Fold these 2 entries.
Entry 1:
Amino acid sequence: MFSQIIIILISAALVNNVLMSQFLGLCPFLGVSKQVDTAMGMGAAVIFVITIASAVCSCIYLAILVPLNLTYLNTIVFILVIACLVQVVETILKKAMPSLYKALGIYLPLITTNCAVLGVALSNVQNYTDHLVLYSIFNGLGSSAGFAISITLMAGIRERIRTNDIIPSFRGQPIVLVTAGLMAIAFCGFAGVI
Amino acid sequence: MKNKYIDAIYNGLIRENPTFVLQLGMCPTLAVTTSGINGIGMGLSTTVVLMLSNLFIGMLRNVIPDRVRIPAYIVIIASFVTVVDLLLQAYVPTLYSALGIYIPLIVVNCIIFGRAEAFASKNPPILSFCDGIGMGLGFTWAITCIGLVREFLGAGTLFNVPVLSRIPGFEPISIFIMAPGAFFVLSVLTALMVKFRMTPNGQSNIGSGCETLVCGGDCAACYGSVLADNRDKIDAANAEAAAKKAAEKAAKAAAAKAAKAAKAAAEAGKAEK
């Protein structure tokens, strides 16, 4: 089981990177990747929320939806749980850990609309049949770490290309998309790892 | 364009096309466009959800209290997505397996939420329904185009009919079917859009340059999403810019008027002489 967990972590973080091969959570990836600091903050907040959301959603799935034969309602239930969860996490952090809240607080509301959170929660319950909660936590951790890695790399590249001389039509969004495409080619190289 | 219903549909198809002009809903745009058929399937599913959710939100807009509108919209949208999901699973299983997890993810598509917030919450149901048709079909044709480009270059076929691949010795550029190709195709299309000045007009927050936000206001998700306060800030920034422009214009007009008056007075003086 230990080796299984390692495989889940690596394949979620690198081989099936949420951004580069599954296109989940592109909006913050294109929007919040202007500076390395903010990108790292966003990455940390995403790791926090996706890991908790994966755990909570799979618990609810096993404890409520499966016994009641309501598994077809998982989309509705998960999106509501995630929306509430982000609110709860924000409130708790504000009260219990003000320093962490200061670091992550501004990014938390941005995450509710991040489709990576719902995507990871849904793929967990589709892919894993045994040890659902445990595997979900590690899959969530791996996926969000992959998100943090690629958004930080992207921000680093964007800081470097800011002063470059780019064709007028490609300034702004288009050159960022070209950069993302080149990064995606690099991430394709991980395909043979597992 | 006199009929307001037809106008609402035309608006979504061309003038405020969600993909090329508003730049909403980028995730499915990139993820499922590996072929033209997938683009049509995804586009039509989104259209159905958009039409029905706009209709219902338009009907319930006076019943839902303002403070809980976001969760209420989420529930309405998620219910229709579940319906579409189950229907596709039952009747079009091949498309269902090709689109996979992106069908339930229609829930978090910013187009649907954006139209619910920006249009359906303020307009009567039938008009909102037409807006849903327009926006949905606009999204459909846009992602079908992207899908066709990728399919044509990456596999040499159009809607699964071999075109380029009939040429002997043809080697498909398979990178266009893979993930990087999606970024490249969208990048070139966006650059073309910038080139031909199809710039967003106040509907989207792109280019508003609101510095008070973490993301600088670039993120298409802000608009009409859960982040209502973000949108307020963007609106305020846009209004400020517009007011500034208007003030400048007014000042210019006043100066021109004064100059004209002075000129007229001088001329009058001349005539008197």
Entry 2:
Amino acid sequence: MIKVGYIDDVLDQVENYERKLRRFQIELIPFEVGTQKADYIEQIYKNQVEVLLIDYKMASTIGFNGSALISYINDEIPDMTCFILTSAERTHITDKLVIDNQIYSKEIFDTEADDPDRTEQFQKFVEQLKNCAEVYQSRRELKCKEYEELLDKKKSRVLSVPEEEEFCRLYHALSSYGMVEKLSDTALQSDFEQKLDDLLQLGNMILQKE
Amino acid sequence: MLHNKREIGFDVDAYTARLIGRENVSKIEGAILELAKNAYDADASIVCFYYDSQTHSLLIIDNGEGMTEDIICHHWMRVGSSSKKNSFVSASGRVKTGAKGIGRFALDRISDYCEMWTSTKDKALVWDVCWNDFSGSKSITEVKARLYDTDDTLLSFAEIDKWTNLQVAEQLRQPEVRLQGTGTVFKLTGLHDDWSEAMQNKVRRHLENLLPPAAVENFEIYFFNEKTSAEAAKIHSSSIEQFDYKIIFQVTDGSLYHDSDSDSDSESDSDSDSDSESESDSESDSESDSESESDSDSESKSEVKIELIRNEFDVIGKLDLTAAGFSEKDKMYFLGQAIQINLPLRQLVSQPEGKNLIGSFKGTLYFNKVIAPEKERKKYYYKDFTERKNFTKEFGGIKIYRDYFRVRPYGEYGSSDFDWLELSSRRNKQPAAISHGSGRWRVGSEQIMGVVSISRYNSNLEDDANRNGLQDGPGLVQLKEILLAVIDEFERDRQYVGRKLDQYYKEQSRIQAELEELERLAEQRKRWEKEQARESHETKAEDSAHPSIAAPVANPIQVQQLFQDAMEEKNQEIQELLNEVKMLQTLATTGIVTNKFMHEIRTLTNNIGVELNSAYEALVYDNDPAYAVKQIRRAVGNKKHFTSWFNITIGAVSRDKRHRKNCNIYETLSDFMDSWQAVLRKCSAELEFICEPQLKIRCFAMDLENIFSNLISNSISSFERDSLVPLDEKKIMIHISETVNHVLQIDYLDTGWGLSDKYKMHPERTLEAFETDKVAADSGLDEDGTGMGMWIVDQIVRDYQGTVDLTDNKTRGRGYHAVITLGGSND
């Protein structure tokens, strides 16, 4: 079952969406809404979601619209596909922050009692969600290899500062999904800081000798 | 593995280079203007264009600084290279206008063969080229021009001794013309165009418009053929001697204005001495407001200083200004004192924070009417303009000059860019007369002309490479916005005067008619008394058995009946039109409300669909009837919500609301407010409605509903405005009470964001048609305000002799407050 996050300031239909997606082996996870964009990143990792559905018109309640939130999330997690799910007319969204084929009307969930055309449209939507989740999964696996390499370097204490940062980012992302082994806080401590400590210690020793 | 590295260069076909040039200078008038600009950039004090019809050649002479061999080789011969790119101020301080290194192609546009003589202080050279050499398949480096040293002087190379126009030749030989030293002469032969009289006149007209009137000193242009007199050869810039209104404006960017013009006719006293009684003058508020702000951002300090000079109305000594409602300051304005208006730029432009994208610039516009019916001349006390010609044909419309040189084709009469500010379509949208009580008068594109002076120092206003205007972009958009705002201020002032004069005229006409009627009745009475006296005298003299024969008169009852019938018919017509207007106002309000809540209506429709579909699937796939029932109930709830919508929108036009009757306000509005409360709850907003229960008014119920629907939908828009910090409270409070003389007072207050900067200092402007801020458009959702809602409110309130007072909004931090009075029925 893939996990799809759902961000909307009005959650009155979420139960219907959940039931419908569950029939297609998709678990819909509604997020708590708030005004801090960073909190959504935490919820992504906490809930291990692989795709996101985000309502568009939320500015009057949380201070920004769905497309601005997607822009933020993609800066933090570029591999995560985010869809706009809105009641607004698709062509009326003119801020050009989300590509057209990632904008869906909430009408997609209304298959009008098995109307063949509507059902087909919904199935395509589901396929797209699954496909995006697979892509996200594959990219994470690729990232696992990068992580392993950096971990080796870390163990040999040859990580540069940018590599150190990338290592921490990958660890945070991958460990949230249980894809890499959890490390102790000591193990996570920056090599750079350790090196700095060593250097300072050496300096002290030289001074003491003199 | 890479080896044997070679570097190879690009080349370009000679014909392509020529094609680029022709694309850039496509019109003959453009080519001539380009060459005149080159002379100006070379610090020339004179440039002459001499067309010789016998040899079908054109001679262009200037006394600029000339070119050295180095400049010819490295700049003149190098396509796309211009010595003006980096050093664009000439030795005498002129800001050079060219920079793209394509001006020389203007020569190719004019003729096949070009011979150039040029001399600096040190040396004279002759250069020639046959442009047809560029036509073959040669590479551009294979095309050669020839360069010679020469002993010729400027005038000997121009062969002035052989000219048939002796008069002009004599004039140009005079030492004060200074055509003896440095300069450049082009002999162009094999001209491409037919230089007919019409063509020459066209070029002359363009040259007349090349420079703004009386702005450029020490630069003269001559254009002549063999027959032109010396006097006619000199080009005089087109200027405007007469005007009804003169509008001088200056945009400052909060820092120093880069102005090389010593003639600062637009420099105005920065003190605002506006008259608060005048609509146009109330801007003084905004000035003081902007001054008091301690905004550190220089962009937001940008402002537009406007001076309006009224020269249209001949009212001094002709009418009692006080009786006509004018103030003492108005009197000074009618005497020629300029009206000073200062506006912060942020109120006029759509850029966030009112950012000035262009920098400082200025301009002068003139308004001139060409015709006016006799009745209007009398009514508005127009000054005599019978001798006035249509300036626009000669001068053009609103033209742009960059560092004193024309940026074509803006304002060019007869071209599609004549009305580049789209004043005509603006006027078509708001075609009201200046006397109209509520509609806006808009100036016609042929009634306004003038000059906008920009500079090379301005940003975001680059020339298009093809010398055909400015590049499209935010700078040009902002320029247009500012000009329209300046024009708007002038229109307001003219309409302010027009409305007062119209009212005065009506009052005077009524008094005059009453006097005439009294005079007529007195005359009638006198005649009747005379008749009576004569008749009684004759009766005594004659036989009393013969009664006097009365003059045939109309039956007074019949006359009265006819009069009543006519009046009834008229009243019926008026009533029908009134009903029609009411219906249209209601339909417009329905449209506005529906449009504003399209998102909510769509959400509601989606929800019902999803709920019914979920109920179906719960039964068919999950065998869960309880869930199905739950969803059906929710769908029914949403359906009820739809009913609220219908009550507000479709319900507004129901038949019983279309008749004027005595209404108990509370009872009339109770259901309507309930419906709004239901709608607002969905938007997480609250509505408090307090109305004294005994209040009555004779009205159309739809009028009251229209007032509130428009106000409430505006409040909801405000509640939903994008903001980093959401509103704490979304509440609307409506309180209806009765004040003195049975005047109803509606106190409307919301807790939204309040009016945008555009209307903060002038909230009354929101009552005009098509006035809308752009907040909705900026939200990313393509929803735009219609600008009709508050206009409809104002129209309705006027019908009831009421007022809409929005002044509290000027000082409110947040929230919107309207105090509306309704004076009772108007029948």
